[in-house]
Design brief:
mainly alpha, 12 helices
């Protein structure tokens, strides 16, 4: 057996941990599960990609209806984090926002509920065509986009999918930036545009749009059962 090959095999780098495993690891504090989990704890105990992982974790609950009523505070937290990146300010959130306990058990359920989406990110997002993501001004543009999407997420709009589309846009955009994927970031752009169109349609059409969607759903999915 060729010793050079053995050496090559031994020196082969280990594959990076899966996103779902990394997020679960973030939820397990070093002090144990009885220790309160906060956003500032997440930021202080992660390095490099920590802010990206924290944004993904804060946006995940709104891809599935498992944490209702929290879009405004979580959206505000993402806006502040994005602002610190754009302004070069100190990382972390003010104590009144960043030191509030995060519902750990619900987040474990959320990771399970979004497992298909996380597997899609794990398999489809990778470093490629990343040169343009590092151009001057592009990083600032993306943090502005993340702040804008978080603002849409935080809006208390009582309309179907008003949180869902901004959450998809946030997760896909942030995951693409974290992986430096210059291709999949366009998926984030698509959901960003869809979010603006969807929420804008509600603002301008309101009840008429909701009535149209209900009638459309009835004709396509329910009417055939009553004929």
């Amino acid at each position: 057996m060729n010793p050079a090959r053995n050496k090559e095999k031994k020196s082969h780098p280990q594959p990076p941990p899966k996103l779902s495993e990394t997020l679960r690891g973030l939820l397990r504090t070093e002090e144990g599960e009885d220790h309160p989990l906060t956003v500032n704890y997440l930021l202080n105990h992660t390095a490099g990609q920590g802010i990206f992982l924290t944004v993904i974790l804060l946006a995940l609950p709104f891809m599935v209806p498992l944490l209702p009523g929290m879009s405004t505070p979580f959206g505000a937290a993402i806006i502040y984090l994005a602002w610190t990146q754009m302004g070069g300010k100190k990382k972390g959130l003010p104590a009144w926002m960043g030191d509030r306990p995060v519902p750990r058990e619900k987040f474990f359920k959320i990771i399970e509920g979004t497992s298909r989406i996380l597997r899609f990110i794990e398999g489809g997002f990778k470093p490629r065509f990343s040169w343009w993501l590092l151009l001057p001004g592009i990083q600032t543009f993306h943090w502005f986009l993340i702040a804008f999407l978080a603002f849409l997420l935080a809006l208390p709009i009582p309309f179907p999918a008003s949180n869902t589309f901004p959450a998809f846009a946030l997760v896909f955009t942030t995951a693409a930036l974290m992986e430096r994927d210059g291709v999949m970031v366009w998926l984030g752009y698509f959901f960003s545009l869809l979010s603006v169109v969807w929420i804008g349609a509600f603002i301008f059409l309101g009840d008429k749009l909701l009535e149209y969607l209900i009638n459309w759903f009835y004709r396509i999915f329910l009417a055939p059962f009553f004929l």
